[in-house]
From TrEMBL:
The keyword DNA repair does not apply. Tetramer of two alpha and two beta chains. Its cofactor is pyridoxal 5'-phosphate. This is Tryptophan synthase beta chain. The modification N6-(pyridoxal phosphate)lysine is found at K111. GO terms for molecular function: L-serine hydro-lyase (adding indole, L-tryptophan-forming) activity; pyridoxal phosphate binding; tryptophan synthase activity. It catalyses: (1S,2R)-1-C-(indol-3-yl)glycerol 3-phosphate + L-serine = D-glyceraldehyde 3-phosphate + L-tryptophan + H2O. Pathway: Amino-acid biosynthesis; L-tryptophan biosynthesis; L-tryptophan from chorismate: step 5/5. Residues 75-413 form the Tryptophan synthase beta chain-like PALP domain.
Length: 454
């Protein structure tokens, strides 16, 4: 009985898996908020390189991974698929639990899978600097790492509450040469406006995105890099699912349940999309669970409509489940899951019933994370703990029914820089935030009004 299933470097995927041409219906296009019509791709050239714009709506079923990107991937990829034998024994479940360990990358999460690709394509086009946002700091540290490897400068706007909660993620970004600012900041017009309205704001990913987009749009030598949500970001992450498919085949397994946490959707999409391709083609029957925080219940409580991807309204309008672009979620420790919207591709799958969303409060997730750390030995990121909570619940359900289900989840990152959150949990000081229904209702009332006929 193998505890870890490894692939040799020569089995590193040569192409990314593109779900778009395999969908029953094409994705809805991003809209220009000024006209309500599909965005002109040329309008994106100010902040994105041409290669990423082409990948965003590419009809190609596979996108070749440049050798320069694969060379960097080999620093940590292929990543292990691990069997959670100790956790299974603790739970006394007949289910077999596997997890794809993305924590082995240098920044400690799945985020470099797209950060390296984005840095590469920007370098090829002669860009000098990238600006971005980050919640818990996993994306910011990943892009800092990638920019260092390709000789780019990096500016990170880090959500203020996470900037305060997670100082060592800031240290990691500084080690790789990035400049990091708490968001909202005084550096941008969007930041200054929000601070004037609420000087005590904890910040949000939507606000940080506004600052990073403004920074990129106002500097000729700078582009914007997004760590989640957009199609090309999820595309780059499919190396996770492709490797997992191969690893499961080596041990003769097929998943019955696939699980990943969801903030914007990058680790979820990267892990599940290759499997969802099989589901759509009728070659696999599996339940796909997208797990989010109960305090920011985008998929479970949000409205499916067009909305801005950022707070200031600088981005195109995206068709997604949203809590309203002005919604500021509570300062839970899973900072990477505090986003008002979700990836349009993930939302389309939820709308179609292919993906089932589930929401948990943070104390239930930390309870699962502690159990995982005490059995499997790895300390999970607070974001990852949501996937673990669902995996444990599915394993307990299998114990009740006696089913030998195969449960596979994405271990999206480690929690080595989140120990203050674990301290708070172990000391009984971690609180669950009530679903902020009134705040969400207020934010939804500010959804963009479309021109006649849209």
């Amino acid at each position: 009985m193998e505890r870890k299933i490894l692939l040799p470097e020569e089995e590193l995927p040569e192409a990314w898996f593109n779900l778009i041409p395999r969908l029953p219906e094409p994705p809805a296009p991003p809209l220009d908020p000024r006209t309500g019509k599909p965005i002109n791709p040329e309008d994106l050239r100010r902040i994105f390189p041409q290669a990423l714009i082409e990948q965003e709506m590419s009809p190609k079923p596979w996108i070749e991974i440049p050798e320069e990107v694969r060379k960097v991937y080999r620093l940590w990829r292929p990543t292990p698929l691990r069997r959670a034998l100790a956790l299974e024994e603790e739970l006394k479940t007949p289910a077999r639990i596997y997890y794809k360990d993305e924590s082995v990358s240098p920044p400690g999460s799945h985020k470099p899978n797209t950060a390296v690709a984005q840095a590469y394509y920007n370098k090829v086009e002669g860009i000098r600097r990238l600006a971005t946002e980050t919640g818990a700091g996993q994306w910011g540290s990943a892009l800092s790492f990638a920019c260092r490897l390709f000789g780019l400068e990096c500016t990170v706007y880090m959500v203020r509450v996470s900037y305060q909660q997670k100082p060592y993620r800031r240290t990691l970004m500084h080690l790789w040469g990035a400049e990091v600012y708490p968001s909202p900041s005084e550096r941008t017009e969007a930041g200054r406006r929000i601070l004037s309205q609420n000087p005590e704001t904890p910040g949000s990913l939507g606000i940080a995105i506004s600052e990073a987009v403004e920074d990129a749009a106002t500097h000729e030598d700078t582009n914007y890099a997004l760590g989640s949500v957009l199609n090309h970001v999820l595309l780059h992450q499919t190396v996770i699912g492709l490797e997992t498919q191969r690893q499961l085949s080596l041990v003769g397994e097929k998943p019955d349940v696939l699980i990943a946490c969801v903030g914007g959707g990058s680790n979820f999409g990267g892990f599940t999309f290759p499997f969802i391709g099989e589901i759509l083609e009728g070659r696999l029957s599996a339940e796909v669970l997208a797990v989010e925080p109960a305090s920011c219940p985008t998929l479970t409580k949000g409205v499916y409509t067009y909305d801005y991807g950022d707070t200031a309204g600088l981005t195109p309008l995206l068709l997604m489940h949203t809590l309203g672009h002005t919604f500021e979620p509570p300062g839970i420790h899973a900072g990477g899951l505090r986003y008002h919207g979700d990836a349009p591709l993930v939302c389309q799958l939820v709308k179609a019933g292919v993906v089932k969303p589930r929401a948990y409060p943070q104390t239930a997730c930390f309870e699962a994370a502690v159990l995982f750390a005490r059995t499997e030995g790895i300390v999970p990121a607070p974001e990852t703990s949501h996937a673990i909570r669902a995996a444990i619940d599915e394993a307990l359900k299998a114990r009740e029914t006696g089913e030998e289900k195969v449960i596979v989840f994405n271990f999206s990152g480690h929690g080595h820089f989140d120990l203050s959150a674990y301290d708070a949990y172990l000391e009984g000081q971690l609180e669950d935030y009530e679903y902020p229904e009134e705040k969400i209702r207020e934010a939804l009332e500010r959804l963009p009004k479309f021109p006649t006929g849209i």
